[in-house]
Design a protein that fits this description.
4-stranded mixed sheet
Length: 212
Amino acid sequence: MGGTVYLDRTDAELRLDGGALAVYVNGERDGMVPLAPVDRIVVIGRQTVETALLHRLAEQGIAVLFLSGRSHSFRGRVIGRLHNHARLRVVQYDAHRSPMALALAKEWVTAKLDGQASFLMEAADVRPDRRAGLLHAATVVGDTVGDPFKDTSSVALNPVIKFTTLFGLLAVEIAVTMQSQTAKTAIGVFFFLVALIFVYRSFYGMRIPSEE
């Protein structure tokens, strides 16, 4: 980050000398300041600023403030080349109004959370004494916060998948081994009714009633 240069030599002349600001007093060079680490120049009192110096300051984005000599009150400011943040904000506003706004926001937030989780995991390798806590924090950030439905849905769907797979294997075994078509039909209807009961209890019986 750059610094601020204050110039308060009365009747001094500020010129451009290569990549530096040169201060001349009575026609002789009195000092030089490199422009590379500077982000602001404050000119106090009556001084002369060379046009070439102003052009270079504008190109490098270095602002120049002019203050009065006695009270140091603000007189004016010269701003260099502006950044592109305003254009970026306009693009972000247009994206906010588009139907893809929610999807973009989710992608940005997910990317930030994934980066934070990776940082915590790397920190766990650097700090073995706090490894358990850092890994737990990385798990919370990466899973619960990054995808709030992942943990709850995976735990709920796991027994459902196992039950469905087991029921399918048993149904195939019954269909192959049993010879009586009537018994096959009765067992199939029975298990179908049981499945309907579970579906009703799982998806309809657990609904949250609406408040009137």
